Amino acid sequence: MSELRKIPAPHVEEETRAYWDGVDAGKLLLKFCRSCNSAHHYPRSICPHCGSDDTYFTETSGRASIYSFSILRVAPIPYAIAYVTLEGTDVTMMTNIINCDFDALEVGQPVKACFVETEGDGPVVPMFEPA
Ligand SMILES: [Zn+2]
Predict the structure, then answer these.
(1) Within the chain, what is the greatest distance between any pair of CA atoms?
(2) Residue 37 C-alpha to ligand 1 middle, in angstroms?
(3) Is the dihedral of CA 64, 65, 67, 71 positive or negative?
(4) How many C-beta neighbours within 10 Å does residue 54 have?
(5) pLDDT in tens, 106-125
(6) CA of 48 relative to ligand 1 center, distance in Å
(7) Ligand 1 mean position to 28 CA, how many Å?
(8) Interval between CA 107 and ligand 1 midpoint (Å)
(9) How many Å lie between the centroid of ligand 1 and the Cα of residue 91?
(10) What predicted TM-score, i.e. pTM, was given to this entire model?
(11) Rounded Cα gap, residues 55 and 48, in angstroms
């Protein structure tokens, strides 16, 4: 089982406050656009696909699958960085895969969101673990 490293706390902007409030409540939110009916991540007020400002947050299942990953074994505490594709969407998000055996990770593997403390008093951040 991998050792857990603490990452620096994210900087929370007004534009992303609802996202971080969701994470703090154990929910992974995703931004959708009413104009082009597509999702995006990271959350932005203006849709990156069509430029509309008619965007809103919705709660995801927190389930995803590994799209790609890499193990950083030379770091002081080795970790797995990955892109995961959120269930029911074509959105991939960069994250870490934790609570796992690095040598057992596979592309396409199902994972689920978990929420991890950061350095200092910052908000927790979403990461993923095997489902
Ligand atoms: Zn759009």
Answers:
(1) 45
(2) 6
(3) positive
(4) 12
(5) 999 999 999 999 988 788 99
(6) 7
(7) 20
(8) 29
(9) 13
(10) 0.93
(11) 10
